[in-house]
Amino acid sequence: xxxxxxxxxxxxxxxxxxxxxxxxxxxxxxxxxxxxxxxxxxxxxxxxxxxxxxxxxxxxxxxxxxxxxxxxxxxxxxxxxxxxxxxxxxxxxxxxxxxxxxxxxxxxxxxxxxxxxxxxxxxxxxxxxxxxxxxxxxxxxxxxxxxxxxxxxxxxxxxxxxxxxxxxxxxxxxxxxxxxxxxxxxxxxxxxxxxxxxxxxxxxxxxxxxxxxxxxxxxxxxxxxxxxxxxxxxxxxxxxxxxxxxxxxxxxxxxxxxxxxxxxxxxxxxxxxxxxxxxxxxxxxxxxxxxxxxxxxxxxxxxxxxxxxxxxxxxxxxxxxxxxxxxxxxxxxxxxxxxxxxxxxxxxxxxxxxxxxxxxxxxxxxxxxxxxxxxxxxxxxxxxxxxxx
Length: 389
Hints:
This protein is of the alpha/beta class. The protein has helices at 15-25, 42-54, 66-80, 95-107, 123-130, 149-156, 178-190, 248-262, 267-277, 281-305, 330-341, 368-379, 381-388, and strands at 29-30, 90-94, 113-118, 134-141, 146-147, 162-166, 194-198, 224-229, 241-245, 317-321, 343-344, 346-347, 359-363. It contains 13 helices and 13 strands. Helix 1 (15-25) runs parallel beside helix 11.
């Protein structure tokens, strides 16, 4: 048998999706993979029912249906006052996962370097490797997960082709300040670097923190590839609708990459989702209010149980410190948590380049009832682990 690609040995399967499978095996509450257990907005579901009867059901335009791209452009303008040409500056992708992969492949050649903040969403490392590029990891320092300006410039001195910026950040919930983003912009111009942003949690930013769209900073639009998704904003993670926004020269390249990766995103789902893109400001206010409420449930519950945790500034993830339980292997802890406690979590080591084994990630994009039940189960965690010892 011929040898398989050496790239396969450079990363594992998705630990997040693995923990979903383990959660299902033990009938645990799945707080590992970040998808809701509540329905999308009824208006979107009603429109989907209509589309199911009327179509479209066949291949659409490769880089996205014209009316969907127009709606994306208007949606983006509402929050940024930035005019995006729906014909020349948008490509619709199969979720933000493909958007990030296509963006990395569009701007890098094998051997190029990419800056990645650590902790990071696990796909970024794989995207870099699959593109033949080499990651340069820059730590985000807890508890606020800020970066050190000198450490970041040292990474830029290695002449990277791009920097990946997840804001708000998965898994740590960091929201980058405008000052931090302006410093990144300064270095991107100084060292002539692209910035690939992942902004899928743009509307889940807790007060007093504020989301700044990186491409709106002076001089940044021409070197920024903005990747987004409808998954988290409209609770439709299974629809796999994402996009890249960038200047025409970049999007022309991204269209070619996208065409040969997936051809096109699902036609009926694009048609149905347009309804959501036209929601008014009150929808996004209500979305933030809902997640602020769920964040409070989770944080207050963990405080009552005496479990140390981070205070997320954005997104819907929270990191728990498991140092007191005496585990050297966070994956082993998560497997025990799913099997014996009935709660699915993700080992924090899957997000860090550094040797971090004392953190696990939970998400709170669940109904209140589910969150309260998960907290009830976590109350048993100490007793179960003490018995194990």
